[in-house]
Amino acid sequence: MNNILVTGGAGFIGSNLTLELQARFPEARIVVVDDFRSGDFRNLRGFRGDFVTADVSRLDWSAQFRDLVFDAIFHEASITDTTVHDQALQSHDNIEGFRRLLRFAEPHQTPVVYASSAATYGICSGIQTEDQPAAPANVYAFSKVQLDNLAREQARRFPTWRIVGLRYFNVYGPLETHKGAAASMIYQLYRQMKSGKRPRVFRGGEQKRDFVYVKDVVALTLHALTASKRSGIFNCGSGHAFSFNEVIEALNRALGTRLEPEYFENPYSFYQPHTEADMQRVRSELEFTPRFTPATGIADYVALLERPSN
After folding, report:
1. Is residue 230 located within the same domain as residue 259?
2. Residue 297 covered by a domain
3. Are residues 192 and 296 in the same domain?
4. Core-most of 198, 226, 258, 297, by most CB within 10 Å?
5. 199 with 232, same domain?
6. Can you give the three-state secondary structure of the chain, one letter per residue?
């Protein structure tokens, strides 16, 4: 690949993806588009490509890139804060950003891999499969459902155009610290335990999440570009449901501590008790298996966090 575009490339997943692309394709021209609403310039230390500071939902794509033809587009840009309840803002920026990107990519049918979300499944328990009907519980999830709808429509109109959506589950890993309170629960609990505090979780601690390491997310995102023979929407998880108690056990092992959880009452009347990605379609159609379980991912992450430079 000679020309690669990454939207949201200063964000958590986007920056990990951008730096991996740079490592794999050192001669390629990589262009990042980001407006820093969910990103941080420090995530792109060492980046040697071009950076366009812009909101993808308002960018004049044709004017910005003129005759530049990209070999691949990775769309990570989004308002990712699910507590943003301005429905017009959330839906406009997420949906229209993707719509404009697709219009720009259409003439050359540039392959697109975009970030969907497990939030499209809504408040449910058990294993989530790609064929489940959408049940968005907030406007963020609603916006991601619309991205999936747009992708399906374009795939119907252009059967040879490859547009792949990945429904990210609970992603954690390096370059998320700028997110503060919106960073993963794994990072939040790590910070508590690192400071000697007992990790605080909802009573019982047996609520389970499919925690997927960002290294696997990046690997699947890159793999999906060429592995998929057709357009499609796939889960992106570890395939394991891991309880918060198990997270604390894994962190204790990694940190060499023995801190007991401090339980408190769950204040939410609607709270998802269990998420777990069905990865069968990914294994069969994309021939991809995640490398990390939540336990091994947490161990790797803590080792990185404990490096002197961090």
Report:
1. no
2. yes
3. yes
4. 297
5. no
6. CCEEEEECCCCHHHHHHHHHHHHHCCCCEEEEEECCCCCCHHHHCCCCCEEEECCCCCCCHHHHHCCCCCCEEEECCCCCCCCCCCHHHHHHHHHHHHHHHHHHHHHHCCCEEEEEEHHHHCCCCCCECCCCCCCCCCHHHHHHHHHHHHHHHHHHHCCCCCEEEEEECEEECCCCHHHHHHCCHHHHHHHHHHCCCCCEEECCCCCEECEEEHHHHHHHHHHHHHHCCCCEEEEECCCCCEEHHHHHHHHHHHHCCCCCCEEECCCCCCCCCECCECCHHHHHHHCCCCCCCHHHHHHHHHHHHCCCCC
CATH number of 136's domain: 3.40.50.720
List active site positions. 140, 179
Tell whether 131 is covered by a domain: yes
Same domain, 176 and 85: no
Check whether residue 157 and residue 196 sit in a common domain. Answer: no
Residue 92: inside a domain: yes
Q: What is the mean predicted confidence (pLDDT) over 160-174? A: 97
Domain span at residue 292?
A: 171-210+239-305
Number of structural domains (the chain) is 2
Express each pLDDT in 287-298 by its tens digit: 999 999 999 999
State yes or no: pLDDT of 310 exceeds 70.
Answer: no
Residue 268 has pLDDT above 80, yes or no: no
Specify the pTM.
0.96
> Residue 111 above 80 pLDDT?
yes
Which of these ranges, 25-29, 267-271, 285-289, has the smallest mean pLDDT?
A: 267-271
pLDDT score recorded for residue 133: 94
